[in-house]
Amino acid sequence: DLMIQMQRGARAPRHIVDLSGIDSLRQIDWSADVVRIGALCTHKALDSEPGLRRHFPGLCAAARVVGGHQIRNAGTVGGNIANGSPAADVGTALLALDARVHLIGHAGQRVLGMAAMFVEPGRTALGPGELIAAIELDRPGPDAANAFLKTGRRKAMEISVVCVAASLALGPDGRIASTRIAMGAVGPRPPRARAAESALRGRVPDAESFELAGRQAGAECTPR
Q1: Among 29, 32, 102, 109, which has the minimal tally of Cβ within 10 Å of its Cβ?
Q2: Could you count the other beta carbons within 10 Å of the beta carbon of residue 204?
Q3: Residues linked to residue 219 through DSSP beta bridges, in sequence order
Q4: What count of other Cβ atoms lies within 10 Å of the Cβ of residue 134?
Q5: Distance between CA atoms of residues 144 and 123, nearest Å
Q6: Other CB atoms closer than 10 Å to residue 145's CB: what's the count?
């Protein structure tokens, strides 16, 4: 996207700094409760990591539909966020997973929730001289699940017409205890469908509940 923006005259940076030589920003580190994903992890690396495929299939599904093979081999999770696109597939999936973004810059380090990262189309909360170092996710529990769906006008190399990511966890009674729903390409930044989330809590996870949530989420959209 940056190359295209430069070719069209939308951006004219005096300098471009290549971060690809910083190997420490490519690592995926697991602990007992958390996984930390380096900002330079490519979409291909995300989709190929066995632990992510097991615990975060929604994130892997989002990485799998970004651009084509060449883009997935070069594009990174940090770039997907920093680009600030309202249609960011990986960014939308991370929003539904309640991810935390670790930033580093002249003033030191800070951590922001994904919801705070997106400000407006093409603009994020990144400050001057600041970069994304890593994204952190809590491991889901045994009664939790997450998923991602995207639709476009073509089967590949397509910006989302709409994409939706969801995560939920069941309580001991088998009802939905908590849920997060994020939507891409339906507003100036990826929003959470808060009313739909509230409508699902305490309900049995069946087709009727999900249809209700879908209608509610649609009502919360503000597409162009």
Answers
A1: 32
A2: 12
A3: none
A4: 24
A5: 32
A6: 14
Would you mind telling me the total number of residues written for the chain in this entry?
224
pTM for this structure?
0.92
Quick: pLDDT tens for 60-75: 999 999 988 898 999 9
125 touches 142 (CB < 8 A): no
Compute the distance between CA of residue 10 and CA of residue 179 in angstroms, rounded to an integer: 38
**Around 206, how many Cα atoms within 13 Å sit in the side-chain half-sphere?**
4
Q: Are 175 and 165 in contact (CB under 8 A)?
A: no
Burial track 154-176 (b if 16+ CB lie within 10 A, e otherwise): eeeeebbebbbbbbbbbeeeeeb
Q: Which residues of 8-25 are buried (b: 16+ CB within 10 A; e: fewer)?
A: eeeeeeeeeeeeeeeeeb
37-50 average pLDDT score: 96
Token representation of residue 213: 């949530």
Q: Are 223 and 209 in contact (CB under 8 A)?
A: no
Cα 141 to Cα 134: distance, rounded to the nearest angstrom = 22
Residues 150-193: tens digit of each pLDDT? 986 665 555 668 899 999 999 999 999 999 999 999 988 899 99
How does pLDDT run across 52-106, given as a tens digit for each residue?
999 999 999 999 999 888 989 999 999 999 999 998 999 999 999 999 999 999 9
Q: Is 102 helix (H, G, I), strand (E, B) or coil?
A: strand
Task: Take residue 182 and report the two structure tokens written for it.
Answer: 């994020």
Backbone dihedral angles phi then psi of residue 138, each to the nearest 5 degrees:
-80, 140
